[in-house]
């Protein structure tokens, strides 16, 4: 990912927190002829490996998993983003731009073949998304029904080999940042307001 120095994020804890908060990610690979991408929930285990492990699954009917081997895949996590109008700046000249946040993680996926390990992975994924909900799902299924459904999916475990973060949030225009935040906070769009919150963390 092209990342100018102003926008680089290298702190491991910051990157991990972002990946957990924006965990519906895109896994990109190449089969030797064309690129392939799958959108899926991804659970980060930060305690394994130097950079952490990613756990997920995809449909067995999805051809993407069949060419996983020794090559890295790219997992893209994206967060708040917003169009930035030059009318919001207090300094000139200025042009339109886009503020956005993203983390790219790389690793070699391994297919999870152990049944009990796969069951635990799915349990952990459900717990991650159900925890804290006022009317959470209990997560219990009859074993025969659960195992039948599991035959239709493939479990994936990816040790992160490298990770890159880019938070492009007007760091290169410090005199304009507060006015941009104010305009985004006043927006009717929730994503704009979320972008403003991210900007405020940097100021």
Summarize the structure.
This protein is an alpha+beta fold and 203 residues long. It has 5 helices and 8 strands.
Walk me through what this model shows:
With 203 residues, the protein is of the alpha+beta class. 28% of the residues lie in helices and 34% in strands. The protein has 5 helices and 8 strands; from the N terminus they run βαββββββααβαα. The protein has helices at 12-21, 115-130, 143-150, 177-185, 190-202, and strands at 8-9, 24-30, 35-41, 43-45, 53-59, 73-84, 97-112, 153-168. Strands 1, 2, 3, 4, 5, 6, 7 and 8 form an 8-stranded antiparallel sheet that branches. α4 runs antiparallel to α5 (190-202). The chain is elongated and about 65 Å long. It starts with 7 loop residues before the first strand and ends with a helix. The model has no long low-confidence stretch (mean pLDDT 95).
- The topology string of helices and strands comes to EHEEEEEEHHEHH
Q: Which class of secondary structure composition applies to the elements?
A: alpha+beta
User: Can you summarize the main beta sheet?
Assistant: 8 strands, antiparallel
What's the shape? Answer: elongated
Count of individual beta strands: 8
Instruction: Give the percentage of residues in beta strands.
Output: 25-35%
* Radius of gyration from the alpha-carbon trace, in angstroms: 20 Å
Compute the average pLDDT: 95
